[in-house]
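Researcher: Next sequence.
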Amino acid sequence: QVHLVESGGGLVQPGGSLRLSCAASGRFFSINAMGWYRQAPGKQRELVAAITSGASTNYADSVKGRFTISRDNAKNTVYLQMNSLKPEDTAVYYCNADIETVVAEYEYWGQGTRVTVSS
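Model: Next structure:
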């Protein structure tokens, strides 16, 4: 079985920073694209940032210039550095990864970590 475990969420004041981490564990061959999504109360889940196995990245317009996605392939981990946080960034953040297993490539989700931006 493959698991994605997120950490790093919490309460932060506007203008502050947080760093989210997501580590993949279990039996698999490789991790392809990884990404972060978020879902705010009453809203649909949306893509925040994604990174390919070759480290190409893309970001939602709302976070460009403030958030940075990166990955450490040796640790099977993806990070999301969030700076200049705004109240509208408040949401549950989910890690997502396309992982190649012995059977096939599957999409996996983490359990989510809550980020609250408030004074």
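Model: The longest strand covers residues 30-39. DSSP finds no helices and eleven strands in the chain.
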